[in-house]
Amino acid sequence: MARRPLPRIPISGNDRIARSRELARTAADNATDVLHPLITISRGLRLLAAAGLRKWADTPKDRRGPGLFLAAVCVLAVALVPYGPLLGLIGLMGVAAWKGRERVPVRTGPDESQIARLQALHDALVPYFSVPEDPSPLFAHGGEWAKAFSDHEFDGDGRLTRLRVKYPPYFPDGETEARARIEQLLHAKSGRGREYLFVWEEEANQLLMSVLPPLPTTIAAQRFVTAPGELVLGFTDPDAVRRTMPVLDGDATRDAPPVVWRTGPRSTEPHLLAVGHPGSGTTSLLRSLALQTLPYGDVLVVEGSGTGEYACLTGRAGVLAVECGLAGALAGLEWAAHETERRLISANRARQAGHPAPEDVRRPLCILVDGPSVLSHVAAAEGRPDPQQLLQVPLRHGRAAQVTVVVADQFDSAEFLDETVRTHTRARLVLGPATPEQVRSVLGAPPHTTPTADVPPGRGYVRMGTGAVLRLQVPATPDPYDEAASEAHRQAVRDLLPERQNAVGTDVPEVPEDRRAGERAGGSAGPAADTALTGPRVEVPAGPARETAVTGPLPEPAGSPAARTASAPVPAEG
To answer: Hey, is 23 helix, strand or coil?
Structure first.
């Protein structure tokens, strides 16, 4: 009986093609594995040959002959050395294998999470950068973010640190409100808690957003490299100013970009106003300015808070007085007004006679007023004149008389500042955390960065007149008697303090003997003391060679044995 053959499984044409492709792919993979060293060496030889041809093309024609001769000499030397050709071939193969090895490609574009962040930011900008009439909108829901975004950089946490946005030409980039909306959106979507800088390029319809590094807080008070009449308010970003100066930052010396305030007759902003919250660093700023002025000028300090923050200056050479009470403040500011008038008269007489101004007129006088609104409130309660009204003469005519006025107050009491103070203080500072509206109300212009809610003391913004708004970090100038401050910073302030003066000295105004006796008998700064302030003509030295007599009140000398209850007690210097 014949045996039937087994039935065969039918194979279609597509299955044959698939099996053939699989066999061919397997053979190719096996051949690649076997010939991988040869492929690597071939790729390396090709790269070496291409590099040699580029080198030959770049070689000048007058140097090609010596180059060929040197190559021939090398080949001849290798050929004559025992086993030279073999060693040369092995070396060439090794170099070719290293040159032709497979390198891991470097990823240059964003990863998936970064792409998702960019796409979300693109979709969030659609309502602001698109209109229904645009036939080919640059921003559209579900559109490609690569058309509008470039120069994107991320930090280690995946947050944007730099981004260039291309927006349509019809966007009103000249309107402040429109800009503010875009900046607020980018700030929120890119991550809060950082300070962003926005640079609008209206001609190219582009916006560059970048994250600014924090300004250093380790620069302490020191002798800065400045000319007389120049005061360093603090330090800013390197690309914001054209000047740098060497500073001591910790134990190292480096160049830092300063914000220099020029005072004197040729200054366009002769007076300064600083506003901040409690603990923002306005008192440290005034201490820093006083320490910079004392080497070549005189300082009069009026402290409205009465907390003794300037006790370290009491009795120092060049410090005319440190007044903490209302009576002392009125006396000191009244004397400052009379001194400004005397300087103007002396300078005018010298110019009419064809002589230079006297030395005591050219010696700078800096009036530091901390918290004048507090003194104004106390004066109104007691029915006495407002101390801010006594600042009108120094503010109006101080530039010609070498008199500089610096006023510091807080945001909650800035509305009580006198109109004269607001008008004549063209150099403005805002220290501490502040909203863009608060910065605009003081500086007259919005900040160019996004203010953060948590900033160190002395951090803020500064604007000179109608100039640009700059970031600022005030040098650390703490009270040397404050044990909570850094010992290094306290020691830096102590090193800058002048020597103390006795009751009778060349740098401290002398008080008449009858006035001293009256104060010893009274023991308080009451009406008797106020009567003594309007006494007879006295000598008021304003510098090393002041001999002109004036009529007017005289601030109590800081080192006088006569006690003034209007001034805060001076703690013993450690």
So the answer is: helix
Residue type, 446: P
The pair of structure tokens assigned to 432 is: 């501490």
What is the DSSP pairing of strand 230-235 with strand 258-262? antiparallel
Please tell me the least confidently modeled range out of 18-32, 87-101, 202-216. Answer: 18-32
Residue 48: other Cβ atoms inside 10 A:
15
Q: Give phi and psi for 37, each to the nearest 5.
A: -60, -40
Residue 377 near residue 417 (C-beta atoms within 8 A): no
pLDDT range class, residue 568, cuts 50, 70, 90: very low
Show the beta-strand stretches assigned E in 194-290: 196-201, 206-211, 230-235, 245-249, 252-256, 258-262, 272-276
The whole-model pTM stands at 0.70
- Using CA atoms, how far residue 105 sits from 51, 109, 464, 473, 541, in Å, is 21, 12, 51, 44, 78
How deeply is 288 buried, as exposed, middle or buried, from its count of CB atoms within 10 A (0-12, 13-18, 19+)? buried
Q: Which position has the higher pLDDT, 222 or 34?
A: 222
pLDDT in tens, 307-356: 889 999 999 999 999 999 999 999 999 999 999 999 999 999 999 999 99
DSSP per residue, 152-204? EEE-TTS-EEEEEEE--TTS-TT-HHHHHHHHHHHHHHH-SSS-EEEEEETTT
Does residue 467 register a pLDDT over 70? yes
pLDDT above 80 (res 120): yes
As a dihedral over the C-alpha atoms of residue 522, residue 527, residue 530, residue 536, rounded to 10 degrees, the angle is -80
- Kindly tell me the burial class for residue 38, based on how many C-beta atoms sit within 10 Å of its own C-beta (0-12, 13-18, 19 or more): exposed
Average pLDDT in the chain: 82
329 neighbors 375 (Cβ within 8 angstroms): yes
The residues that bridge with 406 in the sheet, in sequence order, are 272, 368
Complete DSSP assignment for 339-393: HHHHHHHHHHHHHHTT-PPPHHHHS-EEEEEE-HHHHHHHHHHHT---GGGGGHH
pLDDT for 265 beyond 60? yes
Long-range CB contact pairs, 374-383, < 8 A, 24+: 374/304, 374/305, 374/306, 374/413, 375/302, 375/304, 375/326, 375/329, 376/416, 376/418, 377/416, 378/326, 379/326, 379/330, 382/326
pLDDT at residue 98 in the model? 83
Partnered with residue 344 across adjacent β-strands are none
Compute the average pLDDT of residues 106-135: 84
Contact (Cβ atoms closer than 8 angstroms) between residue 465 and residue 443: no
